[in-house]
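Readers of this paper often ask what the protein records in our data store actually look like. Nothing more is needed to write down the fold, since each code stands for a local backbone conformation. Below, we set out a record of this kind in full and without editing:
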Amino acid sequence: MQEYRFLFQRSWRVVICLAAFCGGLTTHAAEPRRTLSKTLRPPDSVSGPGVTITYEAVVFDPAEPIPMIGNPKWDTSTPESTLKAVFLANRQANTNLIIQGFVPADREKIRNMIMQPDVLEKNTTLYARLAKVSLLQKLFYGDYLILTTSQEDTKGAQWRASYVFKMTPEGWLITNELAADRVYSQLVEMIAPKSPEKAK
């Protein structure tokens, strides 16, 4: 939360709007959306002014499972279909589809990493340990769409993870373009904390 410390020193309430109705955002297919919000405050602070992030999302209720077995069906018509294919590709060490799942600007970097035998082995092992992955929500942020998932490994540890997608001539693909975006980093830390939850 360090990026927003300067805002907490102010006396007014700052609202960062990420919803589609804020203007200047890409129009997506009509889906049942919810307006969600979260107020962020400094550590150990439970009162006083904070930063309220308001965003618009499609909530999967119930959560939509991502298949853990089967052959990847390469379909980039939606972020959901791309993510399902990429998950299976990672579990099966299908390097071609893993690389193809990213926007062209990211592919060289991904290729250089994933083609290293030790990296590929660790990545495949990591995905093999996943016992359950489900889609929780789809968030709209400018030209990007963020999918948040709940994940559980074979030992019962649970956590959330988010993936950023962008529409390209090849369809919806994963992108790292928001890696340095301060608003995005705060938002993801809010909806998908980095620290895994304890096993049940």
